[in-house]
């Protein structure tokens, strides 16, 4: 290790904590709006098992769109390249819940990390597995070794009641034939996946295979081939932050994925995974402090994929 990660992480954490926490906790999912805006956690984990943590790193929070990486991993593993007939791999340049490109693109979402793309992935999960909810939980529990990771039924119900845009999107894609199952079943699975609760520590463990060429760093078993792993990292880099993906790549320089619960997970292939959680979001829906932290982290360590 050339860098003193412990010192860099605690220095950035203290510095950001001393500054104003801008942004806003989203209010469109009422159950999430209740979370304390000042929560702030960091968990760094590398392939040599070095771990450096700060603040609320052990507290579980709603992973929201970060779950899209788990569902994509399972579907891509089972379906292979046929998946790309149903969802593209181009950045959308639009908000994560936008409908605007779907009509021109004949119901094919731009990528698997915008909501429309994640709904198609959920539709495929329903076809592949008898019990996709259990399958996703098994995957996450195995890779983290933490059996207490689960769905938050209240958060899922709160979104089901208020998720009119997602419902519109799902029905619209059904009209193009790109949703095969009953849209309500697809939405139920999607909202449940968004409601999974994990800590920064859990998330860094669960994403470390993406820094390890697709192999589980605990037992070296292959989760995904190295080629598929490269591609998931590529989609995280180009699409992981919606219409702020270019900015994240520009400022941070790592593949990553954010969620409206305030979490951001980022990966440096062959090296480490880092998760930051702070619930206040910027205008694009990404954690304000999470972005600041990671920008400073790759600047001070001098390490990124570029
Ligand atoms: O569907 C939604 O709007 C949320 N359940 C997930 C959105 C999300 O996390 C996008 N993230 N930045």
UniProtKB/TrEMBL annotation:
Substrate binds at residues 65, 115, 159, 166, 190, 242, 260. It catalyses: L-glutamine + H2O = L-glutamate + NH4(+). SUPFAM superfamilies: beta-lactamase/transpeptidase-like. It is an enzyme of class 3 (hydrolase). GO terms for biological process: glutamate biosynthetic process; L-glutamine catabolic process. It comes from the Bacteria. Transmembrane segments: none annotated. Its EC number is 3.5.1.2. Gene3D superfamilies: DD-peptidase/beta-lactamase superfamily (3.40.710.10). One of its GO terms (molecular function) is glutaminase activity. Keywords: Acetylation, Hydrolase. Homotetramer. PANTHER family: GLUTAMINASE (PTHR12544:SF29). Belongs to the glutaminase family. This is Glutaminase. It comes from Halpernia humi.
């Amino acid at each position: 290790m050339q860098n003193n990660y412990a010192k860099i992480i605690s220095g950035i954490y203290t510095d950001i904590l001393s500054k104003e926490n801008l942004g806003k906790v989203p209010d469109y999912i009422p159950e999430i709006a209740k979370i304390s805006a000042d929560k702030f956690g960091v968990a760094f984990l590398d392939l040599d098992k070095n771990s450096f943590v700060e603040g609320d790193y052990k507290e579980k929070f709603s992973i929201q769109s970060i779950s899209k990486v788990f569902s994509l991993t399972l579907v891509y593993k089972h379906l292979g390249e046929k998946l790309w007939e149903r969802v593209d791999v181009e950045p959308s340049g639009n908000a994560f819940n936008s409908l605007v490109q779907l009509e021109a693109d004949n119901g094919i979402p731009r990528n698997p990390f915008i909501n429309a793309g994640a709904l198609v992935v959920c539709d495929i999960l329903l076809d592949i597995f008898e019990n996709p909810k259990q399958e996703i939980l098994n995957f996450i529990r195995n890779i983290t070794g933490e059996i207490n990771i689960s769905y938050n039924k209240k958060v899922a119900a709160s979104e089901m009641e208020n998720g009119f845009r997602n419902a519109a999107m799902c029905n619209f894609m059904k009209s193009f034939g790109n949703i095969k199952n009953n849209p309500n079943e697809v939405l139920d699975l999607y909202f449940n996946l968004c409601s999974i609760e994990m800590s920064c520590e859990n998330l860094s463990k669960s994403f470390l295979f993406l820094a390890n060429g697709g192999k589980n760093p605990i037992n070296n078993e292959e989760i995904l081939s190295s080629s598929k792993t490269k591609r998931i990292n590529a989609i995280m880099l180009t699409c992981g932050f919606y219409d702020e993906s270019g900015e994240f790549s520009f400022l941070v320089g790592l593949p990553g994925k954010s969620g409206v619960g305030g979490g951001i997970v980022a990966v440096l292939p062959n090296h480490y995974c880092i998760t930051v959680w702070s619930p206040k979001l910027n205008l694009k829906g990404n954690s304000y402090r999470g972005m600041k932290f990671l920008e400073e982290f790759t600047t001070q360590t001098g390490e990124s994929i570029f």
